[in-house]
Amino acid sequence: MSNKLSQQLDTVWKYTKFIFKNIKAFRASRRLYEVRANLSLANREIGRMTYHDPLYSPRVKEFNQVMVELVRGKWLAACAMEAKDKNEAKEFWERAFTRIRVSKGYSQRLLEVLQAKSQEPLNLPETALCSNGTEILFAEGAPLVPEINPVVILQGSDFEMGYQYAQQLVQIYGKWILERKSGKQFTHDEMECLHKWEAQLEIYAPEILRMCEGWSAGAKDLGIPMSYEGVVDIWTGHRPPAQTYLGLGDGEPFMAPPYCSGAAAWGKATTDGKLVTVSTGDHDCHHMATIIAFPDTGNNFMLTPFGATGDVPKLGGIYMFGHPGMNNQGLAYVEHGGMPKMVEPKKDWGYGIRMGAAVFHILRFANSARQAQQMEMAMPVGDVGSGGFGSLGGFWADSEYGYIIDSRKDPIIIREAGDCGETDFLYAANHPLHRESGQAPWMQADREAWHYNPHGGWYANYRPIKKIGIDEEVIIQSLGNGFIGSRDRS
User: Fold this and answer.
1) pLDDT in tens, 61-72
2) What is the pTM of this model?
3) What is the CA radius of gyration of the chain?
4) Is 460 exposed, middle or buried (0-12, 13-18, 19+ CB in 10 A)?
5) How many Cα atoms within 13 Å fall on the side-chain side of residue 426?
């Protein structure tokens, strides 16, 4: 048997195990998507109504009730995936699918009456809500995502800020927010891997580790057994860097690249010459907290991680990444600048700094976009192959300059205003917009299918995936298909 065939069979076996292990999660995800699609269409119909319409308020109330049912289903599915034994998981999955079925039925009914412009009330049963002594609401034990994003205010040393973060998260959400991340037991290999990531932080962003120490202490003082290593794991993970595109062959691939967008304008592109930015995160909204930090050293800054404890639904762990962010020097972190690009050669992949930690560090210590660029270029290439938040390279801007890094080594590719015909503004979706980004080896391997548009960037011919199993060819075709949507947004 050839070595290539052996690797392909090994990859298929790993993916098969991954799929069977998570088969109920895949089923739940598909059904949840159907509910979200109904609610998206229903929301559009409600948006066409006026506030003076006597049905407006009742329809909003019905919409909210369907959302509550949806959140209950999602929460129970999450509990099932984190259950400690099979019997507990079975019970949670049964309850989760019941709630998902109910929410689907409600969402379909709501959409139908809205599209028919019916006067008929749905008379949905209301779910009792309570706060459980926190700052949010719970529906039958499921913590609802707050309508307004909570804020945590941190001040002092790195240790003090980590301590305050843990304490304030529990004040806002309750102990569950940290308990679900506590008590993690690592194997010898996992701990060895985690220490390698930790060593990179000690070199390039040591303040993060001091925050981890404070975070652990703050949790323990509330009776939550979060170890220092457990907190570091939130920032780094405990798996080695990917060796193949999107972790192909590693058994647990990066399943769903986020479809974010961002833009920044300054100088001649704004009326007063000052910086204006906008960014979206098209992921499933989660329990977040905007951080406003006043550290003893460096700049004051603010940032909103996508998940208060470093993960989001479907994507899993994203290492405390989020956007937007800004500091008191006028530097803004707009968003990640598009992903996955994976231009740097595989020989340079390895341990480094995760995107989330890099953003925290640069906001705190860079005074301008050009300084941010210098800091990013000085850090290791890192875990480029994971395709998501494993390495750094983002979209930064101030009132004089903006840039997006597509590649930090062999070749260096930095997109600036003017490269695609812009004047004092930049835009990013998920796909690469810089012409030179077409040098990515995985795109070159499939070069005849790819095309470049000066304003739309790189995109590929749409090709249905007909191959059984997953290999590098399937990954490349999937990325090409996904980038078509990004091109359309550009």
Assistant:
1) 999 999 999 999
2) 0.92
3) 23
4) buried
5) 32
